[in-house]
Design a protein that fits this description.
- The chain contains 14 helices and nine strands.
- By secondary structure, it is an alpha/beta fold.
- The chain has a single domain (7-29, 44-298), classed as Rossmann fold (3-Layer(aba) Sandwich), CATH 3.40.50.11550.
- It has a seven-stranded parallel beta sheet, with helices on both faces.
Length: 300
């Protein structure tokens, strides 16, 4: 299989979990001047959400890939969720922004038993995620008003950091309970490895890391993906009549390498329909335009 060669020009666009690994500061999104159709198949590029909503309504799992500090991306996420809810009230929202051990805190907020301020504090949102709460607040408030389940998908940052620094073999038995079984942590996707390590190489050129740390960095990224995929798959299996909308960084969604393919592997149902939407045009240059980076790219 031909390897995927990707030129990465903005680490934060790929959302490789860097700030949780604590090796780079978070970075701001910058608008791209390159149009979607210049880089990707015209069948993927859409100018309006109206063009894709009919197809999203038929999906079991929908991935809305974001640039974390893009207010427009989050506004479009809310618009899509609102439209999907109008069509089917049995939806759930999976969020990369909350780590799995805080699921009960998320449940308490949705149920209205704690205030928004208490939710931010108890979920440790500011230290574990770090981006502006107001970017996500309208989505969470809508979920609370409509009593939409919200899934805390992410790996605990303590585990992500430990794996990136020491390797997965250093996890204690207790720590392993917070992640999927080790046998399910698949690192055999060569194209995905190339994509992630291209970003790491730019990071390394700034004087951080070596080949061993690069391998651990990729493993930490995959661990993050597998943990989120595991939580999504478990919910889908337990609630087959629900539609799940996943909010995550672009890097966890493009080409299906991060989360989508790992959800499919766990569910193994030919009837499963997944759709991916990139809410910003990715700042990467694909070699093969015939390989879809996502089902849809919003060309805004």
């Amino acid at each position: 299989m031909q390897h995927l060669l990707v030129y990465v020009t903005k680490l934060c666009v790929l959302s490789l979990g860097i700030f949780l690994i604590n090796t780079l500061p978070s970075c701001a999104a910058e608008p791209t001047s390159i149009s979607c159709s210049d880089k990707f198949s015209t069948s993927q590029c859409v100018e309006s959400l109206k063009q894709i909503l009919p197809k999203l309504k038929k999906a079991n799992v929908i991935y809305l890939g974001e640039i974390h500090d893009s207010s427009q991306d989050h506004e479009n996420q809310l618009k899509i969720i609102e439209k999907l809810y109008q069509n089917n009230t049995r939806i759930a929202i999976g969020m990369e922004m909350f780590q799995h051990p805080f699921q009960e805190v998320v449940n308490e907020y949705i149920a209205g038993t704690i205030t928004e301020a208490e939710f931010i504090k108890k979920s440790e949102f500011k230290t574990r995620w770090g981006f502006d709460w107001q970017l996500y607040a309208p989505i969470l408030r809508f979920a609370k008003r409509k009593q939409i389940p919200v899934l805390a998908l992410n790996t605990p940052s303590e585990i992500t950091r430990k794996v990136s620094r020491e390797g997965i073999e250093k996890l204690t038995n207790s720590e392993k309970q917070a992640i999927p079984p080790i046998t399910e942590i698949r690192t055999d996707n060569i194209a995905y490895r190339q994509l992630v390590l291209k970003a790491f190489e730019e990071h390394q050129s700034a004087g951080h890391g070596n080949s061993s740390s690069a391998n651990r960095f990729f493993l930490a990224q995959v661990l993050w993906d597998e943990t989120m995929a595991d939580a999504i798959a478990k919910f889908v299996k337990a609630n087959p009549d629900y539609q799940v909308v996943v909010l995550a960084g672009l890097g966890h969604i493009i080409y299906g390498y991060g989360i989508p393919n790992r959800v499919e592997r766990r569910i193994q149902d030919a009837k499963l329909i997944q759709r991916s939407v990139l809410l910003s045009v990715p700042d990467i240059i694909p070699v093969d335009k015939d390989k879809q980076i996502a089902d849809f790219i919003l060309n805004k």
